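Extended Data, panel c. Modelled sequence:
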Amino acid sequence: MADNQLPQLGRSKSAGAPKHRSRIHYESRLLLLALAIGLPAFILLFILLLSGDFTPGTIFGLLLLATVLWLVLAFRLQGEVVYHLQTLTNLLEALREGDYSLRGRRARHGDVLGEVVWEINELSSTLRAQRHEAREASALLQKVIGELDAAVFTFDGEHKLRLVNRAGERLLGRHSHAILGLSATQLDLDDLLDQEGRVIAQRNFPSGSGRWDIWRGKFREAGLPHYLLVISDLSHALREEERKAWQRLIRVIGHELNNSLAPIHSMAETLKETVYRDVLPDDWREDLQTGLGIIADRSDALNRFMSAYAMLAKLPAPRLQSVNIAELIGKTAAMDQRQVVQLQGEELAVKADPDQLEQLLINLIKNAMDAQEGRDGEVQVAWRERGNNLELDVIDDGPGIANTDNLFVPFFTTKPGGTGIGLVLCRQIAEAHGGSLVLFNRGAGRGCVARLSLPR
């Protein structure tokens, strides 16, 4: 504990101080207890003096001396206890007020009072370290929030703005000093605070209009409700993704058109030269038939390509109804007679468009059989309930996926005569149902898994 050199801190009386039941203060009760301890000895001394052969003056002197010593020791005991308790109180008060620099000086083990002081000192050190960590974390958080591209706003329970980062300042076109403390209504953000969760919306802000990802959440600070509003500009990201998508699409379409138009043009030029000759060769009819056949084949391929494009671009919204998955998979697996598909799953029902789901399964099973054609192995379809989702796997024993970069690029294919829209159409159907489709290798050089996940 702090010795007498430790300054006594002022003791503030807060409005929330507990009310004592007893009207007598602890100090007074402690003094009364000390007096009560010495009272029996004082009475015994008085009796002994009266029963002995002492003069009245001697008795009075001895009683006066005993009384003084008694009172001095009682007040000393009271002062010693109260002093140490007040010192402990001052140490705790300093902790409550956030002053962690004060330390008790009698902290030691093996002493009850010293153990208390030791624990208070350790508590002070812990709180000081935690405050430093909290300040560093707060500074880091403010730095991160300040550097975010998304606009971040925090509002108190009365919808008054309490924090905004630089992106938020740019979004509103005003400095933080001018808008802190303003209400959400004054900032024209009140409708965003009334929403729940995340929405994507077209909206105008002082910085410009665009498509925005808007998220509103709640948190509590000092026990009071606060609101967090995060606004992200999606326009630039969407334009960049759209540009990349167009580049991929044009590259693939250009490749397919060149594959069809180049032989058509070449064969047309050859036939034109043949027809315009003064003397036709003996086999000109065969050359003409062969050339026109090539032109017809490439025209058919180009027509199939355009039909596939129309199918991908005009996929209608799914018409949901209850579908028995086991029955649908069994019917679909029996369509391809190249080999028997191994089925494993339980009776489950899912809300889906049966025609679209059947088309998806036909494509996945056909891909699995194509992948292991000419190889020993089997095709399996396994399905299960995973939480609130249906999880379905189409598994093959083929060579696996060598490159996954172009799996879902429209019109990209490595199959002779393929259209390159099968997997793209499958994923589009899955996402239209609120689900997902992923492909991954099984490992150890054994085949691929196409995993479909749909909400029940």
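The two ends are 67 Å apart (CA to CA). This feature is highlighted in the accompanying rendering.
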